[in-house]
Amino acid sequence: MSFNNCRCLIQQISYKQDRVLGLCSRGVYVTKKQKLSYFQMPATRKVFTLAMVRKTNSLLLGLKKKGFGEGKWNGFGGKVEKDETVSEGAVRELEEESGLVAKCLRKIGILEFEFAGDPVLLEVHVFDVTHYEGEPVETEEMLPQWFPEDGIPYDQMWPDDILWYPLYLKGTKFKGYFLYQGHDTILEYTLTQVEHLP
Ligand SMILES: Nc1[nH]c(=O)nc2c1ncn2[C@H]1C[C@H](O)[C@@H](COP(=O)(O)OP(=O)(O)OP(=O)(O)O)O1
């Protein structure tokens, strides 16, 4: 049995008799006594960037060669370091993973990801990059390739991508939350268009 904090307890908890135990959708058990403190305890949050590079009717994706999301086509990004802003992290990660130097970044979305049974919440800041210098090069982490906007390989990507890419491609800002079971199944999600992003 694991004891952990979970943000979805309010909807998901169910009790067996008095002193037992709820199982939330992330597979986290709690006792009734612990419920309140869990509500007050946020999951550990890690901030990531995701730079989406595009030119007329085409989108640059990278095939992740190792690590988290290996084997999937994705935008370029990674963890924001302690000594940098989110935008600085986005520029650094894009250059490390593709060789491109972003000249202009526009934040277009914020996505949160949770994985059932894992207390870490990923906060991913998504940027649109239309001005950059350099040519895409294969790096240790990524193999870049241009795709036409009507030929995006969604079946080899994170399952959430097919949901929010259409908003991104038409220039609409968005916020989303996705709860995953493993890396291939979305248990629940919300996705909303927004006027402004922080
Ligand atoms: N469900 C999801 N859908 C999506 O489109 N992108 C996701 C995603 N979950 C994570 N990402 C992105 C965010 C980020 O750009 C990337 C994961 O970053 P990485 O693990 O590659 O970070 P780092 O390169 O900093 O890690 P290390 O090199 O292992 O320290 O995948």
TrEMBL record:
<comment type="function">
    <text>Oxidized purine nucleoside triphosphate hydrolase which is a prominent sanitizer of the oxidized nucleotide pool. Catalyzes the hydrolysis of 2-oxo-dATP (2-hydroxy-dATP) into 2-oxo-dAMP. Also has a significant hydrolase activity toward 2-oxo-ATP, 8-oxo-dGTP and 8-oxo-dATP. Through the hydrolysis of oxidized purine nucleoside triphosphates, prevents their incorporation into DNA and the subsequent transversions A:T to C:G and G:C to T:A. Also catalyzes the hydrolysis of methylated purine nucleoside triphosphate preventing their integration into DNA.</text>
</comment>
<comment type="subunit">
    <text>Monomer.</text>
</comment>
<keyword id="KW-0539">Nucleus</keyword>
<dbReference type="InterPro" id="IPR015797">
    <property type="entry name" value="NUDIX_hydrolase-like_dom_sf"/>
</dbReference>
<keyword id="KW-0460">Magnesium</keyword>
<keyword id="KW-0479">Metal-binding</keyword>
<dbReference type="Pfam" id="PF00293">
    <property type="entry name" value="NUDIX"/>
</dbReference>
<dbReference type="GO" id="GO:0042262">
    <property type="term" value="P:DNA protection"/>
</dbReference>
<dbReference type="GO" id="GO:0005634">
    <property type="term" value="C:nucleus"/>
</dbReference>
<dbReference type="GO" id="GO:0008828">
    <property type="term" value="F:dATP diphosphatase activity"/>
</dbReference>
<comment type="similarity">
    <text>Belongs to the Nudix hydrolase family.</text>
</comment>
<dbReference type="InterPro" id="IPR000086">
    <property type="entry name" value="NUDIX_hydrolase_dom"/>
</dbReference>
<dbReference type="GO" id="GO:0005737">
    <property type="term" value="C:cytoplasm"/>
</dbReference>
<dbReference type="GO" id="GO:0046872">
    <property type="term" value="F:metal ion binding"/>
</dbReference>
<dbReference type="InterPro" id="IPR003563">
    <property type="entry name" value="8ODP"/>
</dbReference>
<dbReference type="GO" id="GO:0008413">
    <property type="term" value="F:8-oxo-7,8-dihydroguanosine triphosphate pyrophosphatase activity"/>
</dbReference>
<feature type="domain" description="Nudix hydrolase">
    <location>
        <begin position="42"/>
        <end position="170"/>
    </location>
</feature>
<protein>
    <recommendedName>
        <fullName>Oxidized purine nucleoside triphosphate hydrolase</fullName>
        <ecNumber>3.6.1.56</ecNumber>
    </recommendedName>
</protein>
<dbReference type="InterPro" id="IPR020084">
    <property type="entry name" value="NUDIX_hydrolase_CS"/>
</dbReference>
<keyword id="KW-0378">Hydrolase</keyword>
